[in-house]
Amino acid sequence: MTSAFANWQDFWAMGGYAFYVWLAVAGTLLPLLGLLGHCILQRRAVLHQIAQQQTRQRRRQAVQQKQEAL
Fold first, then answer.
1. pLDDT score of 3
2. Does residue 3 sit in helix, strand or coil?
3. Rounded to an integer, what distance in angstroms lies between the CA atom of residue 44 and that of residue 42?
4. At a CB cut-off of 8 Å and minimum separation 6, what does 18 contact?
5. How far apart are CA 15 and CA 5, in angstroms?
6. 28-57, pLDDT tens digit by residue?
7. Domain spans of the chain, in order of start
8. Separation of alpha carbons 49 and 57, rounded Å
9. Which of 14, 38, 45, 60 fits a disulfide with 18 by CB distance 3.0 to 4.6 angstroms?
10. In 1-70, which residue ranges form alpha helices assigned H by DSSP?
11. 21: Cβ–Cβ under 8 A, 6 or more apart, which residues?
12. How much is the pLDDT for 59?
């Protein structure tokens, strides 16, 4: 198997189309990384909301049990 480029300089130059090639690469990777970051932040927020809801529910149950015991 032979390489399409003779050296690294040719690889980075992309046969004279480097600006367009690397712009396309950046235009693909940046939104994907942004989406990944957004998903991670949303997941943390949802897990935090679930934890708050469970805490609230436990407190309500404890209060109800106290009221029933009286």
1. 81
2. coil
3. 5
4. 12
5. 9
6. 999 999 999 999 999 999 999 999 999 999
7. 45-70
8. 12
9. 14
10. 8-13, 18-69
11. 14
12. 97
